TrEMBL record:
Residues 46-184 form the Expansin-like EG45 domain. It comes from Sinanodonta woodiana (Chinese pond mussel). InterPro entries: Expansin/allergen_DPBB_dom, RlpA-like_sf. It comes from the Eukaryota. SUPFAM superfamilies: Barwin-like endoglucanases. This is Expansin-like EG45 domain-containing protein. Keywords: Signal. The keyword Signal applies. It holds the Pfam family EXPB1_D1.
């Protein structure tokens, strides 16, 4: 995906809904945890972590149908211009809905829904992602809606629709977790072994901490 251009984020507005963001502060936090905004996308390319056959740009099946995400540029790598094999490739994040969402940009889901996603792609700081993935030094590492991080969730096989998050773009908290443990609990979360199939996984890239800068 990232190799050929822009990452298109899918947005849906629920007209007439009264919404509120549960996360507060600068950066936004909820119950002592860092918050992130989310969107969803559908794409058939292997993405910025190379999770597809080396001789093409298609996805491995698990990168198409599993719980995988594109991270905002500040989370993807310390280098703001890096677009391939970022230090967050292959890292797993547990995201938990707060019950909130960005007014005018989605709809609420019940609080406390948790799912674990592996980062296999980049949401670059460029059009059309500037509202969500523009966190950098110039804006204090916050996007338009005040979030330090953004995760764009792959829905290639309807996995986001199946959990009721498609079109809703829920506000979430996030934390790093062990991929293999998460995979054991839910096979839709990729394992470390699956990530080692990726081009970046074979390069032994050093995974970064969840600091976002």
């Amino acid at each position: 995906m990232i190799l050929t251009g822009f990452l298109s984020i899918c947005i849906f507005t629920f007209a007439g809904c009264k919404a509120e963001q549960k996360c507060t502060g600068n950066p936004r936090m909820y119950n002592g945890k860092m918050c992130a905004s989310t969107t969803w996308y559908i794409d058939g390319r292997k993405g910025a972590c190379g999770c597809g056959p080396a001789n093409g740009d298609s996805q491995f099946e698990w990168n198409h149908s599993g719980f995988v995400a594109a991270a905002s540029q500040n989370m993807f790598d310390y280098n703001p211009s890096k677009s391939w094999c970022g230090q967050m490739c292959g890292k797993c994040i547990k995201i938990t809905s707060t019950g909130g969402f960005v007014p005018g940009q989605g709809g609420s889901v019940a609080a406390g829904q948790s799912h674990v996603f592996m980062v296999t792609n980049l949401c670059p700081n460029e059009y059309p992602n500037l509202s969500w993935c523009s966190q950098d030094r110039s804006n204090g590492y916050l996007n338009k809606y005040g979030y330090h991080a953004h995760f764009d969730l792959e829905d290639g096989a309807g996995q986001i629709r199946s959990i009721g998050w498609q079109h809703r773009n829920p506000e979430v908290t996030y934390e790093e977790v062990n991929c293999d443990q998460a995979h054991h609990q839910n096979s839709r979360t990729p394992s470390n072994g699956m990530y080692r199939q990726c081009q970046c996984g074979q390069r032994g890239n050093c995974k970064k901490k969840l600091t976002g800068k």
